[in-house]
Specification:
This protein is of the alpha/beta class. The protein is built from 13 helices and 14 strands. The strands form 3 sheets. Strands 1, 2, 3, 4, 7, 8, 9, 10, 13 and 14 form a 10-stranded mixed beta sheet that branches. Helix 6 runs antiparallel to helix 7. The protein is globular, with a radius of gyration of 25 Å.
Amino acid sequence: MTDEKAPEAVDKDKDKEKPAEPAPERESTTRHTIKVGRTEVSYRATAGTYHLKGDDGKVRASLFYVSYVREGIANQETRPVTFAFNGGPGSSAVWLHMGVLGPRRIDVGDALKASPPPYQLVDNDRSPLDFTDLVFIDPVSTGYSRPAPGQDAKDFHGVKEDAESVSDFIRLWLTREQRWPSPKYLVGESYGTTRAAALSTTLQERHGIYLNGIVLVSAVLYMQTLQVGPSNDLPYPLYLPSYAMAALYHGRTRGDSMEALAAEVEEFALGDYASALMRVGRITEAERTRVLRRVAAYSGLPRDYVDRADLRVSPDAFGRELLKADRRRLGRFDARCTAYDANLSSDNANEDPSYNLVQAPYTAAVYHYLRHELGFDEDMPYNVLVDVSPWKLVEPQEGGYLDVGSKLRAALGRNPGLRVLLMSGYYDLATPFLAGEWTLDHIRVDPEQRENVVKRRYEAGHMMYIHEPSLRAMRQDLQGFIAGK
């Protein structure tokens, strides 16, 4: 027998690994000046993170943002503020941030051809910072935004969940910056327009925040307008005018002008073409032949191909078939862009020449800009575009196609002063211009509010701001919209 003490009982709970604490909020503030037109604009740039907390006070997520606030002006608290985000879902705000709205942008020219690195950052003399402050938001899992340790990212990956977390950020920013009296605007691109429409009611119901305006860039509010399938004929007539614009650009159809051809094709698409698709099995052979000829002529596709497709040409098929004889595939985001197609028998719909042209420049730009110019040092990956599937589009009890147009209609009904600006590109094969306009037409706002819904088109694609004339036009339209003109 020895004098050694018996070993103490092991506390098994001590061996359990405790969840890591969330990283503290961070902020880097710098000051700059740019010239917008003839105006010198001094502004404060802040790159940082906000903690989003649950009702129990625990941190659920850390959201990354970049804000730009103009300095040296009176009545700062009543100056307009615009919250901007992109789509995906799963995209950071880099495209709107560094392509059109922010004070610095990546210069890719009219990105129809790939350019090698390095890529140039330039002052954005088209930025709206002279007439509105700007806040760019990266939703959870994008950019530097992440769920807190122990939190599941999928709890933020859905229309409802995403709108709630972004609305919580907006409330927090308005509170900390003392900007509740400011006129408030949203700018969303692609799925970001879905988010903006969902936010229009979420902000009202969750935080009592009523918006002054919503800008929809390359909109998708009603998924049935885009999702082609054997039981859904709606997308085909809504895509046809975009096919015609691409065919005109590539010399595969004729027209006196884009505007005249677009109007002619829209009339046919929503009339005889839509009627023929609705009356399948009931139209005469003569009627079908007349429609077939016009679909083929407008789209620039061979008549026998449209016939074999039974008048129903998907956007992926159109992008593959229009220049097939030249072994070229069209860009989905911008049909002006093409790429050599080595395997004509492969669908390969995920390969988009227009995205490939901008991915590298924007990625390099945001990494350099955030660290070098805004002083935000971070070693984790900046998720420019990340897979966030499965994304919950509809609640189980809802079923069917996602429809946030109904939410926008509700927001307009509660807030008669709310205005909407739709910006669409003629060459966009991802969110065709007629689909967005058709959706807004069908939300059936109060007749007295019809002038509150404004539609604009640009001679470019999904990211119309890579086209210099469209970039200029977007600024003018946004300035007039915020000014109430």
